[in-house]
Write a sequence for this structure.
C-alpha cells in the first residue's frame, strides 16, 4: 500500500503530476491515492516533504544470494540454425559478466547441435553447456524447460538471459516458475546497479508508452527475456578459447507431454524483414491496398523488405507478418523509410534503432518525425513515385 | 468439455497518450476494455463448446469494476463468471498473479482446457499463461493459431513460431495461449445480453481461495518496479525543404551513399 502522511503532506501536487498512472490526486489539500496505483514508487521519490512511503512487507530473501554466480545466455537454435539473438545476448551478457567479475556461459539445447558450441565461444562465451539429445530435436516447453531448470539448479547462475522470441517467451516463464524466481519480459536495456550488483531490467509497457526498470530483489537467478535486434553482438574472435561441457541429463526430464507432429517453415518474408538492410514501411496514410503497391515497388527498387504499421495491418492491406512495432516485429535495418506512418509509440518501439530513418508524412506534427534522421512533410502519393523514378534511373545508370 | 478462459480488464493502450509537457500518461477518456487477445480465447472456447458440448467459465483477477467485463464475456457466450478480487492482490507481478489464479482454479477444480490470450496489452509480458500451466502442472502450448482436432483426451493444434508453425498434439487437461489469427470474435447476441444482465457472478476473496497471504500482491511478488519513465526519442529531425521534387533530390543525395 502507498501510505500518505496527511500531517506532512502540503498538498503541493508534485506527486499528482508525476504519477504516470493518474492514481494520485490532491483533494482537500492532501494527496489521495486511487485504485490504479501500481506501487511503482515514482511519487515517493519526488515528494519533497517525505509524506509518501510504500509499506513494503517484502518476501524474505531466499537463501544466500551470493551462492548464485555467473551470467548465462540461453543460445536458441531451431532447424539447425542458431538464432541471431543468441549472439546479441552474448554481447550483452559479456558486459554484465565483466561488470560483475564473473564468467559468461551459454546453454545450447537441441539435437546434433554440438558444432555450434565453438561459435558461441568465438562470440564471447567462457563456457558452453551442451545438451545434445534426440529428445530435444523439436522444441517442447516440457523438455526444454526441465533441461534449463535442472542445469540452473545445479550450477546456480545469478542471471539468465534468453531471447524474447516465440520459443523464449514460451518456455522461460516455466523455468522461472520452477526456480521460484522473478522474470522480466522483453527487455530493451540491461545494466548492473553499482551499489549491490542487482540486474536493472528495462522494458516498455503500455504498448511502449512508458518504460519501466525492474529488479528481482530477493531470489536468484534474475531472469530476463530480451528483445531481438536491440543488443549488439561482439565481433567474432575465432582464436577465443572456451570450455565446452557436454551434459547428459536424466531421460525422464526430457519426456515432453506435448508431441510435435510437424514443424513447418513458412513466412520467408517475415524472416527477411527482420534481417533486411533496407525496410520500406507503409501506414494509414496510404489509404488502401493499392497504396501499398507503391511501397512494394519502392522496396523492390531499393532491394529492401516491406513493413507496415498496425493500422495498415488492421485495415487488412497487408498480412500480419509484415507488422512492425510492440505487437509485431522489431527491426533494426540500415535504412528505414516510413511512408504515411504517423508514428504511434507502439510503432516507434519496433523500428527506432534503425541507423537512418526517413519519414514522409503530410502532418508536420506527426511523432514519426521525432525519430527521423531526415523528414519530408508532403503527400506520399507525390513523393514516393518520384523517389521510385529517381532510384530506377540510378539502377539503370 | 469444461473450459476456463482467463480474461483481464486493461486500459485501452492505443488510447493511452503521453503528455509531452508533464510526461504523464493522459488517461482521459481511456476506456477499460477486455484485453483484445482474451476476446479471441473466449471466442475459441465458445466455438469448442458449440461443437463438442460442455461449459465455458470466464475467470478474472482484478478490481470490482472488472465485473462489467465479465458480464460482457457472458453476453459473448460464457456460461459462468468468476471474479477473484481482494485488496491483498494489489501490486502483484506475474509470479503472484499465477499463484492467485492457480488457487482460484483449484477452487473451480474441474476443467479440461484453459485458454488465455497470448499476452495482455498493458503489461505485454506473456508470462501468466505459461507460469499458470507450470503451477497447475499441466501441458502448455503458446501462440496457438488454430485448433484442428479435439477429442475427449487430446487436442491437435498449430502454434505460431518465429519461422513458421508447429503442429502439436496435446493431452488434456492443458493450457493454451492464443493469437489473434485463431478466429474472429463475435459480437454479443441479444439473448446473451439478457443472460449477462441476470447472471450471478461468483466472487472470491483471498480467504475463499485459501491463499497463503505471503504469496499475494506486492508482498508475494518476485520482481519490483524501481523506476517508470517516458521513452526517449532521439531523431536528428533534419527536415528537408523546398518543392516535392527538390525534397526528393535532397533525399536521393543523402541515401545514395548508404546504398
Amino acid at each position: 500500500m502507498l501510505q500518505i502522511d496527511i500531517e506532512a503532506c502540503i498538498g503541493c501536487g508534485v506527486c499528482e503530476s508525476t504519477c504516470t498512472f493518474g492514481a494520485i490526486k490532491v483533494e482537500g489539500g492532501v494527496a489521495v491515492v486511487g485504485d490504479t496505483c501500481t506501487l511503482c514508487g515514482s511519487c515517493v521519490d519526488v515528494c519533497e516533504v517525505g509524506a509518501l512511503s510504500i509499506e513494503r512487507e517484502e518476501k524474505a530473501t531466499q537463501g544466500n544470494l551470493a551462492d548464485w554466480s555467473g551470467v548465462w545466455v540461453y543460445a536458441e537454435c531451431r532447424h539447425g540454425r542458431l538464432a541471431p539473438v543468441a549472439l546479441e545476448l552474448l554481447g550483452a551478457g559479456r558486459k554484465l559478466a565483466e561488470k560483475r567479475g564473473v564468467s559468461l556461459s551459454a546453454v545450447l539445447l537441441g539435437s546434433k547441435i554440438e558444432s555450434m558450441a565453438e561459435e558461441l565461444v568465438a562470440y564471447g562465451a567462457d563456457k558452453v553447456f551442451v545438451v545434445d539429445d534426440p529428445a530435444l530435436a523439436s522444441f517442447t516447453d516440457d523438455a526444454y524447460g526441465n533441461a534449463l531448470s535442472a542445469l540452473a539448479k545445479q550450477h546456480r547462475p545469478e542471471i539468465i538471459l534468453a531471447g524474447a522470441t516465440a520459443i523464449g517467451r514460451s518456455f522461460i516463464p516455466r523455468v522461472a516458475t520452477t526456480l521460484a524466481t522473478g522474470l522480466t519480459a522483453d527487455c530493451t536495456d540491461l545494466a548492473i546497479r553499482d551499489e549491490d550488483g542487482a540486474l536493472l531490467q528495462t522494458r516498455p509497457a503500455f504498448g511502449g508508452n512508458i518504460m519501466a526498470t525492474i529488479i528481482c530483489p530477493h531470489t536468484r537467478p534474475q531472469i530476463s527475456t530480451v528483445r531481438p535486434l536491440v543488443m549488439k553482438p561482439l565481433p567474432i574472435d575465432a582464436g577465443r578459447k572456451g570450455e565446452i561441457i557436454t551434459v547428459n541429463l536424466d531421460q525422464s526430464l526430457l519426456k515432453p507431454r506435448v508431441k510435435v507432429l510437424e514443424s513447418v517453415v513458412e513466412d520467408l518474408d517475415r524472416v527477411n524483414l527482420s534481417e533486411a538492410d533496407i525496410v520500406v514501411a507503409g501506414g494509414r496514410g496510404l489509404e488502401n491496398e493499392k497504396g501499398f503497391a507503391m511501397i512494394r515497388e519502392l522496396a523492390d527498387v531499393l532491394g529492401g523488405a516491406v513493413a507496415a504499421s498496425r493500422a495498415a495491418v488492421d485495415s487488412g492491406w497487408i498480412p500480419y507478418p509484415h507488422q512492425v512495432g510492440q505487437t509485431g516485429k522489431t527491426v533494426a535495418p540500415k535504412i528505414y523509410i516510413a511512408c504515411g506512418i504517423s508514428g504511434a509509440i507502439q510503432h516507434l518501439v519496433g523500428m527506432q534503432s534503425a541507423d537512418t530513418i526517413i519519414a514522409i508524412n503530410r502532418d508536420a506534427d506527426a511523432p514519426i518525425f521525432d525519430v527521423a534522421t531526415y523528414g519530408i512533410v508532403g503527400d506520399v502519393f507525390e513523393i514516393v513515385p518520384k523517389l521510385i523514378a529517381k532510384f530506377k534511373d540510378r539502377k539503370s545508370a | 468439455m469444461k473450459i476456463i478462459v482467463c480474461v483481464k480488464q486493461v486500459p485501452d493502450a492505443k488510447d493511452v497518450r503521453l503528455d509531452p509537457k508533464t510526461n504523464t500518461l493522459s488517461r482521459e477518456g481511456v476506456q477499460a476494455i477486455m484485453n483484445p487477445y482474451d476476446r479471441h480465447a473466449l471466442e475459441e472456447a465458445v466455438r469448442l463448446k458449440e461443437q463438442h458440448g460442455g461449459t465455458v467459465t470466464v475467470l478474472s483477477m482484478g478490481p470490482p469494476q472488472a465485473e462489467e467485463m465479465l458480464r460482457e464475456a457472458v453476453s459473448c457466450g460464457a456460461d459462468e463468471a468468476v471474479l477473484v478480487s481482494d485488496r491483498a492482490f494489489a501490486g502483484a507481478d506475474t509470479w503472484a498473479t499465477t499463484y492467485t489464479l492457480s488457487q482460484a482454479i483449484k477452487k473451480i477444480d474441474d476443467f479440461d482446457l484453459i485458454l488465455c490470450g497470448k499476452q495482455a496489452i498493458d503489461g505485454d509480458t506473456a508470462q501468466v499463461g505459461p507460469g499458470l500451466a507450470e503451477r497447475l502442472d499441466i501441458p502448455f502450448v503458446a501462440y496457438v493459431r488454430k485448433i484442428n482436432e479435439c477429442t475427449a483426451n487430446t487436442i491437435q493444434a498449430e502454434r505460431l513460431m518465429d519461422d513458421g508453425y508447429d503442429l502439436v498434439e496435446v493431452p488434456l487437461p492443458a493450457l493454451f495461449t492464443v493469437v489473434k489469427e485463431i478466429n474472429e470474435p463475435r459480437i454479443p447476441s441479444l439473448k446473451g445480453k439478457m443472460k449477462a444482465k441476470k447472471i450471478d457472478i461468483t466472487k472470491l476473496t483471498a480467504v475463499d481461495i485459501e491463499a497463503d497471504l505471503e504469496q499475494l500482491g506486492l508482498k508475494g511478488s518476485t520482481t519490483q518496479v524501481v523506476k517508470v519513465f517516458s521513452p526517449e526519442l532521439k531523431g536528428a529531425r533534419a527536415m528537408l525543404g523546398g518543392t516535392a521534387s527538390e525534397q526528393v533530390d535532397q533525399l536521393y543525395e543523402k541515401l545514395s551513399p548508404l546504398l
Q: What stands out?
A: The domain at 2-234 of chain B is CATH 3.40.50.620 (Rossmann fold). The mean pLDDT of chain B is 91. Chain B touches chain A through 88 residues (CB under 8 Å).
